[in-house]
Structures are given as C-alpha cells and as structure tokens.
Amino acid sequence: MELPECPVCLQTYNEKDTIPRVLACGHSVCEACLVELPQRYPDTIRCPACTQLVKYPTQHGPSALPKNIDLLRLCLEHPSSSSSDDSQKSKQHSVNKGDDHSQFLCTRFWSDELYSTWRDWILPHDVISIESEFAGREGPGLGFVLRGRFGSTFPLKGQVCIQENQCLSLAPIVSLPPVNHSKFNFSYVARIMMCLEGMKEAQREELALILKASMKQNRICKVYGLWSDLVGGLLYLVCERHRGSFLEKFSELRNGFVGLAGDGLNRDGFVSFSMIGMSICEALIELHTEGLVAGYFGRSCFCSDELGGIYFDLNEALASGRKICRTLMDAISIGTSNTVKQEAICEYFLQNECLVSPELLFELLPKDTITPESGFTRYPIGYGSDVWSLACVLLQLLFGNALPRCTLEKNEEKKSFDISGSYICWVERVSSILEDKLGPEYLLLRQTLCKCLEINPGSRPDAVDVRKCIWEMLVKPQFDVLGTLDVALNRNSVYCCLILGELCQLSQECSKSQRECEFQDKDNGGWPDFVQDGEENSDEGLSKGMTELKDLRGHLDCITGLAVGGGYLFSSSFDKTVRVWSLQDFSHLHTFRGHENKVMALVYVDEEEPLCISGDSGAAIFMWGLTSPLGQDPLRKWYEQKDWRFSGIHAMIVSRNRCLYTGSGDRSIKAWSLKDGNLICTMDGHRAAVSTLAICDEVLYSGSWDGTIRLWSLIDHSLLTVLGEDVPGEIKSVLSITADRHLLVVAHENGRIKVWRNDVFMKSQTLHSGAIFAICIQGKCLYTGGWDKKVNIQELSGDDFQLVVNSIGDIPCSSVVTAILCWQEKLFVGFADKSIKVYHGNLKSFSWYASILAQVSEKCQ
User: Fold this and answer.
1) For residue 37, with 0-12 CB atoms within 10 Å meaning exposed, 13-18 middle and 19 or more buried, which class applies?
2) Residue range(s) defining the domain that contains residue 573
3) Predicted local confidence at residue 593, as pLDDT
4) pLDDT confidence band for 841 (50 / 70 / 90)
C-alpha cells in the first residue's frame, strides 16, 4: 500500500517533520515545504499539486492552516516507504514536471541556440546614421562612411562601445528578403533574423569567425556587428574605421625614401619601411592566428590610426575579394573561346596592381579555360597565398609604379599563352630590380621577398619569417634585448579563406538583375545585391503568410468585441447589435437585435446548446441561442442592478463551471449562473470601472481603470491578491488583459504592457504611442492594437530570469484598433471605423521573425 506523501518533497506524512496542511483548493502539503515555496504574489501561494493560486496566511505561516487529520492517522497506522522508493519517485516527478512544461513551448523556425548566438551581434537600427557617400576612394571602396549616432555599450562578446560620431565602415553581406506585397511590416530585428536563418550554415559560421576574430586581436579592425538601413535592403557588416589613411601614409613614406631612382635605399628610408612593414606583417599574423586567410589583399586592406598603428580591415578584404570575383565574371563573359578568355583574364590579373597569387588565379579561373599549354600546376590555397600578397604590398611600398608588370608570352608553335613562363620572367625582373635598388646591404630582404613569390606556396616563408627578417635587419641580433615575435602557425590547420569563402561567393550566385541595386555604379565599383537562391521563394511564403483575406462591413459604429465558436464569428458594436459571420466564406449570416444601448462585450459558450452572450452599457445581458435557424429573440435576458453613477457592462467571460462573470461600470465583478441567470455573488474592491476580465488556472483576473489587477479565487470568489498598488501616483488605466498558464500580460492606456511569468513580474515595456485597447496571446506571440492605428506582433522569449519582448513587426491600419482575436492561423481585427479585417497566416510561427537573434528588445529600450 502506498502511503500519502507530500507532492513537493515526496516524503510520507508524519506528525513531526512532514505535518500535512490543507490548502484552500483541498490539497495537502507538508508544513516544511510550505515554508520553502515561493510567494510570487502577496498573501497567495500556488498549490504544487494543482497549480491553483490560493490564499496563504503570510503573517502566521503554515501553522495557521488546518492539519489533515485523516492523512496523519493513515500514515501513523502503517510504516513509511523506503528512502530509495522516495528517491525514485522524486526523480520521476522531476521528469514529469519537465515534460509537462515542454508541451507549452511554441514551435519555432529557428532554434533558441541560433537566436542566442546572433542576438548580441545585431546593432540597433538607430545607432548608425549614413552621413555621406565616400566617393573617389582608391581601391574597391566601402560605399559609405557611417558615424555612430550616440555612445552606448552593447552586450557584445568583447563589450565594444560605439562612441558618438565615431567613423565606421560597412560591407554588404546579403540582401534582406523583399516584403513589398505584404500587409505585414516586419520589424528590423525580424528581417535580419530572417536573413540569417536563410543563410547557409557555412556562411553563418564564416561570419561568426570574422566577428569573433576581430574581438580577440589588436591589429584587426574591430567588427561591431550586423546592421541594415532597411532602405537599401542590404545587411551590412559594421567595422571600425580609423581616421588615418594608410594609403596616404604609404605614399608619404615612399616619397621620403631617398635614392629610389638608382642610388639605393638609405638607412632612414629603410627604417621607415621596416616599421610599417613589420606592422603589416603583425596584422597578417593575427589574422592567421584566428584561422582566417584573406587569399588576396592589397594596400587598401590596411588602415592607420592617429598614432600610426596599422590594422587589417576585414570589410575591405571582403570588398577586394568581391571585386576580383566580379571582374573575373566580366572577363569570362568577354571571351568566346578558351584562348580569348584566358588572355582576357590573365591580362587583367597580371598587368595591373590587382596582383593575385598563381594558385588563386588558377582556382578562380573556370576549369574549361585551363589548358595544358598554360603551364599551370594546381597548388592549394593557404597561408602562403597571403604571404604572396604581403610581398606584393611590400614591393609596392618600395617601388610604387616602378614595380614591373607581367606581360603574357605567346607560344607561337602551340598558338597559346605560356602563363607559367610569363610568371617566371616577371619574378626574375622583380629580383633584378630589387638587387639594383637594395644593393648588397639588404641581401636577406631581397632573398626573402623573392622567396615569397615562389610559384609553389609550400616553398614560401610564413608571415612570421618575413617579419623576423625585417626585424633582424633593422635591429642587429647582438642588440636585440626584446627578442622577436614568437608565433608558430600550423600550415595543416583548418582555416577559412575569405575570397573563396561563402560570403564572397554570395556575389557570384547573383544574376545581373539581382546585382543592380539603387546605389550601384558599375564604373565606380558599385555593390551587388547579394540575394541567395531560394530567398525570394521563401519570402513569397512570408508575404502570403500575413495577407488580408476579407474586409467585413455592416456595423454602423465602432467594433467593441469579437468571439469565435460553432463555426461562427461574432462581433459586437456600439450600434447596439451583434452580427454573426460565417467562418467558411466570412459572409454575413444574421444580426441579433434587441439591445437598447451600446453592446460593450460578448462571449461564446460551448455547451450542449451553444450560446452567445452579450452585455451592453445599460447593464443588460442577452443570451442568444445558436441553433439553426438563428432566431431574433434572445433565449433569456436580465439586468444588473443599475447605479445612476456607474452603470453598464464593460467585460465578460465564462468559466468552466458554467459561471458568467461581468465587469461593470459600478466597479464590481458579478458572477451569474448560466442555468437560470441568477446572481451568485458580487466581488467588490476596485475603485473604478472594471474594464477587462481573464480566467486561467481557476483564477479570475480583473483589470480596472484604477490601474490595478485583482486576482480572485473561482472556488469561493475570495480576493487572492492585488497587483499595481505598489506604484502610487502612477495610475494608468488597465484596458486589456490576457493570460495563459505561465504568462500574464496587462495593457495600459499609456501604451505600455506589463508582463508576469510564473507569478513573477518580468518586464514593463512601451509598445504603442497611445492606449492599447486590445490584446491577444497565442503561443509565444503577443498581438496588441490600439490608438496608434496598428497591430504590433511581439515574441515573448527568455527564461525564468529574463523575459525578452522581441518585435516581429506590425500591421499598419487605417483606424483605431478596438478588438483582436486569434483563431486557427487567422487574425481578426476590429476597428473604430466599423470594419472587421481578417488576416491569414501561420500565427504560431511568427516567432521565426524574432532575431536578434538580433536584437532591439534590450538595446533600443
């Protein structure tokens, strides 16, 4: 025989340690556990057996509750169960409790892990303002110069702060899916999360690697996160931009070198070259340390701060890579035969300053353009490819325009271009010029630079070796008291190549029509519109997911309430009628007439004989039968006791025990029997009209114009607790309430909502610029509407310690929103202009659009 036990500690009751005390709901809990149970609301406690909120004597404690004598007698007459059984039951109880909670989670299109990963990287929309277009800049260009609008510290991984008027740069990552034909305006964070969710996993991983690398290294420009202006329709990577120009510094240093015309490089010139050369090497080393390989970079990929420090600009590296990809595509489209294509491509890459390593050129060339006669050999892309570009930057620093350009050598016998031979000739000319310019004093530097240009990347030195060479020539080993940079790179380690990575490849996946955006200029290096395959189709589903199905008209005044049941949609109005609409085709079926005053509220009752009950401002309650055919006369009607000062019904709701509750202008809540319409009891306490009612877990929630929410027990109709009295002097009328098992959301006339989760106050947040008249919750999605003529859709997420209200978007409306109802992927909205609009969509899945990730919810408050 199993003896009765406490539902919390699962211990058998006794008269010493586990004395059973009886709660108002009839369940018993041991005295020790009652002391430990959290009291979320004043003078109340949730029964751990039925989760019902019941009265609790806080001042006197559990000893003031009656003992369960019958349970004590039964336990004393039989021996207690073993502790092992208790342990097993406790474990099973925990499992069941977790399973019970999981069924209330809302299905999402993205995981909590994805959202939590990206939410901190989404910059608020108003933190950045586009100040001016940055034109005429050497290199690929970043398109715009941006400045931080205000200084705020964001919860990024590195706690980076964007200061006021800080100069920033941006690089486009991907297009935001278009939503031009949707009735629904997606929020800023929702559109970015939609973009991130639509990206491939490899693209997100590469993006995350770039973000994290910039936070850990000092010589890499900090990447603050993701941002979009929404107007251009692009998602950008926002990076710091140093005010010092490396290109100007580059030119000044070259002009300061003496003897470049033929006298050789003097000592002062070499010192200047060495300092900037080592800084470039250090920036490249930090990049490689984080597992990133640029693949190609030029002088424009480096920038300088006010103190002369050199930094590697990840945004510019992406820009340079994309420019090469676009140029390659244009060159391929010019030629008709393989030979012509090969010539066009190589003429560009080998005869201008956009020098690309041989192995990268081979990788970028279409395989059908590579012929055996070209002399190409396939080598892997890796750290050696960046060392090749490093050598080119250092050579440009030394020689500038004097750096020789490669010319293609044509093999007359085979009528083809010997690319490999042309490259070898070019390296020999570079070596010859180096010997003339540097002289025997800098033999080690000349040998190192030439070795960096080896056709086999495996034979090239590391960036660490190049820096060591420059350092040892600048500081003689016998005077080196600080030592050299001790960094070892594993050539076999896994790395990500930016130019061959997913982010650069996005531009190649676009058609020419997709690459034309509003600020594109082909002659000035305009940016393409990076739209992925399948994004347009995905958004087509999204725009169709919130479409206006029907505009229901017929009422002659403002809509006051909506209800669904029995295959009907019911609507009440100030025009003193209740209209019945078909849920099949939304046609008007019937109108209930009889009220002499404005109909303020209505409810549907699902009984053996379904009912529609309506209440008006004259305190009349009408009960309408729904058997076919629908009749004109009510089945029953009765009136509240009228008060000449406060009268009328403002809210109605029905409990499972067949009780009708009405909130009245006389500041009371009344309970009525549906069987005969008799008044059961009156609940007083509010100091103003009761405007809204909700029922959840055998608790009646009432909101009032006095700014408070009162909780009533449905068992004995006693007052459990009062919320909102702890903020004196800030009375804001409560206009609407919605509740489910875990959440209580209260809407106020000042446009703010207050949210309680598991009886704990979590958040107060402004959602509208005016009063919120209607509120509805489904799953994790909250729908609100009011004076500002729009329906806002939010996602409520987080955990027991933090509630996050993420704006998914809004539906712009032409009139004040007065009623909202969710039912089977349809959203019904009533307006002050006498209309009812029906929107169709997968309402349960709107949480897909919440993320950041990410995110505005905390950053923009």
Assistant:
1) middle
2) 548-636
3) 94
4) low
